[in-house]
Amino acid sequence: MTISQTIKVAVDAVVFGYRNQALHLLLIQRKLQPYEGGWALPGGFVLDNESLEAAVQRELREETNVTINYLEQLYTFGAPERDPRFRAIAVAYYALVKPDAFEIAASTDADDVRWFDINALPELAFDHAEIIRHALRRLRNKLTYEPVGFGLLSEKFLFSDFEKLYSTLLNKPIDRRNFRKKVMSFGILTELDEKRSDGKGRPANLFQFNEDQYFKMKNQGFYFEL
Amino acid sequence: MTISQTIKVAVDAVVFGYRNQALHLLLIQRKLQPYEGGWALPGGFVLDNESLEAAVQRELREETNVTINYLEQLYTFGAPERDPRFRAIAVAYYALVKPDAFEIAASTDADDVRWFDINALPELAFDHAEIIRHALRRLRNKLTYEPVGFGLLSEKFLFSDFEKLYSTLLNKPIDRRNFRKKVMSFGILTELDEKRSDGKGRPANLFQFNEDQYFKMKNQGFYFEL
User: Fold this and answer.
1) Which residue of B has its CA nearest to A224?
2) ipTM above 0.85, yes or no
3) Does B6 contact A48 at a Cβ distance shorter than 8 Å?
4) Ranges for the Nudix hydrolase domain (chains A, B) (predicted)?
5) Are B91 and B10 in contact (CB under 8 A)?
6) Are residues A88 and A171 in the same domain?
7) Cross-chain residue pair B48–A7, CB shorter than 8 Å
8) Which has the least CB within 10 A, B96, B210, B225, B226?
9) C-alpha to C-alpha distance for B97 and B70, rounded to whole angstroms
10) What is the CATH number of the domain that holds B110?
11) A157 and A116 fall within a common domain
């Protein structure tokens, strides 16, 4: 059976980072045409014998020096005109990390690599703005039914840090009293007998993430209903 | 820029049907090698100038005579060995319909087409069993945060029909009292001044779906927490 099809398959990585209480996004500056010099998601074409997951990890590593063991598949973008060169579909993946854990460095097809504040993104190549919008929706949706992002805080943190993380990722204010009541009722945070100042008010108790309880909640399904 | 890549792009349709209070799945019997004579999801290769959505609709129409205007993208399956002929990735889509609304008829690559009870599926070609498992998880997950499947019931229905639909799709018993209380509290069902017997007990009131309220809830996010 011969399939006369000339569609190319690419992968793209939407890597979100939480730093200085702001949501960031990892972008590369393209070295080649099309969109030469423009900013884009790290990504590239899948090799013939490589899984999609291996491809997105490889492209990310090659172009930005960032190694991420698990990226979640987001969506496949396949509009016929999305690449001006030829028909190419993009299987997009996303992840949420701590930027300080990585030493970013541009290489191969990338001239530069940077973390951009999500509220100050440059103009983007291809349909990457659409892919990012889609990833943000997915991330925010996920936050409402799963406690995402504990790995983004220090081991011990103020409740206000956790609240700020959620408020930042969701990009909306949180009803503090209800949120605290709800989160504490799940038992995923342990209040420690140790205080720290948030730099403004009087010292407040530190909290620690209860990982066992987290995995238990995760398996049962988890609803914040924010 | 030349991309020496020989990956083919296919689409597959997971079409669930709800009939006789049971969940069904639309499958075709393959006319060609590989897996000749085996059962498989309707699907096929994307044409060079066709969107992924158009491709899955076309393949479904050609192979089964079923026209569905909206299928939701499920996941892209790309393991290097999933097709014994060549490297082929499959962008899978799914939908949930009323089987009686369609006159199925096998054509092109299909020798036969049938609705199978989800609990009595035949052996499946390729990685289609995995794709179906994935689609079932997604469908069941979606049911817990969105009121799916009202279109599967008659215009006026007994609350027990609705409960049975949910119980069947979720494949688990439902706590009747809590479920009814929760569903009614959302205001998406209107209780009518009209009765019908369920064939067993005394006549019970009929219900109608409140579409305006449904879309309002949908926009706000919706949590059954079943």
Assistant:
1) B223
2) yes
3) yes
4) 6-140
5) yes
6) no
7) yes
8) B225
9) 11
10) 3.90.79.10
11) no
